[in-house]
């Protein structure tokens, strides 16, 4: 692996960020986002659904204030029972 790939992306905070969340129930995922993000202004949009509609993908757009906040939101979304995956 080259040194370029090992380096972390340097972000200047605050910055816009998008979490892509995947799960079986859109409404439950939207509730999870509301529970977790609470005080931040955010926008949820449907990205796509699997061919059989077993899984749905939502984009959650918001402005993150710091690396710890960005990471904490990622971990909280990932840990929620309604969310199967976070990208």
What would you note in describing this structure?
The mean pLDDT is 92. The two termini are 22 Å apart. Helices cover 33% and strands 32% of the residues. The chain has a single domain, classed as Alpha-Beta Plaits (2-Layer Sandwich). It is globular, with a radius of gyration of 14 Å. The chain has helices at residues 3-6, 26-37, 67-79; strands at residues 15-23, 42-49, 56-64, 85-86. β2 and β3 (56-64) form a beta hairpin. It is built from three helices and four strands, in the order αβαββαβ.
Which features does this protein show?
alpha+beta, 3 helices, globular
CATH architecture: 2-Layer Sandwich
Tally of contiguous helical segments: 3
Shape: globular
Q: What low-confidence regions span 5 or more consecutive residues with pLDDT below 50?
A: none
CATH superfamily: ACT domain
> Element order, helices and strands?
HEHEEHE
* Number of E-type strands: 4
Q: Using the coordinates above, name the CATH class.
A: Alpha Beta
Gyration radius, in Å: 14 Å
Provide the number of structural domains.
Answer: 1
- Average pLDDT works out at 92
CATH topology: Alpha-Beta Plaits
Query: Which strand-content bin applies to the residues?
Result: 25-35%
Q: Biggest sheet, open or closed, and with what strands and sense?
A: 4 strands, antiparallel
Q: Identify the strand order in the major beta sheet.
A: 2-3-1-4
C-alpha end-to-end distance = 22 Å
